[in-house]
Input
Amino acid sequence: MIVRILAEGQYDVSDGALDRLNALDSALENAVEANDEAAFGTALAGLLDAVRTAGVAHDADSLDESDLILPSADSTIDEVRGMLDDDGLIPG
Amino acid sequence: MSVWKRMTLIFRSKANKALDRAEDPRETLDYSYQRQLELLTKVRRGVADVATSRKRIELQMNQLEQQQEKLQGQAKKAIDMGREDLAREALTRKSGLTSQIADLRVQHEQLQGEEQKLTLAQQRLQAKVEAFRTRKETIKATYTAAEAGTRINEALSGISEEMGDVGMAVQRAEDKTAQLQARSSAVDELLASGALDDVTASGPSDDISRELDAMSSGSDVEAELAALKGGGKPQIESSESGPILEGESVETPKQEGQS
Output
């Protein structure tokens, strides 16, 4: 499975790691819905770290589409909500 | 739905919409390649812009640090001459500069971070654009309408995702640099006004001085004043009304033959 962390690149992550990543993703979702900035920061950092640890960098010169896309490490809760509200994800 | 599933769907549909679809799929490949090259140029320009801003801040930090040393020297001189009021003014200004320098240091780190991120984004995009070019030529060389659709779509969707990602990175870097540039200009104005040059050039009640007063922390000043007084030379009598400390040219009166 290919996971992209925005502003960082693509990682190959084995399907075995998916359960753990899904749990971390739920934490992130809860934080966004509760508008809890602190929990959001922890959840996002935890999720991205887990992807980086469980995954290996995907070939730089491949043209493969990612299966999953995650916000960049320095995203704020407002930015992520903005993206999920379908508001200007790709400029221009 | 989970954050990443929504995010993935949204990102993909946007990237897909951003493609110029042509009637002949081969043209779509060429259009896309054209846009990739444009984006690469934009990223390179972005890296250069951030670097320019970073260097400007380095220059400002150097200037402010020199200014601090000068004010320290003036304060010392003022104490030696028994003009505590002038020493206080110099140290107050110096203290104001300290917070400016700290602020610039934070900005400098932010810009360094952006520069690094953007440089990596450029490298990633470069690798993918190169791969796309090769793939595009292969597809065109062996083109058959029947099978082209899938292969073209695969190539396009992969590169569109990268372009969307890098496009966002450039946008963010531009926004951040623009924010910092406005603050950077304020420091330039302060430096250019000459008001920082000399404690005695203007009275302690001019605008810059008041501003610096407000920014400075009084306790720093007192502590440094105390340190200076403790470590300073015995006070030398000064002429009562002479223009003490006028510019750098006035020397501390030497008291030869005594000590």
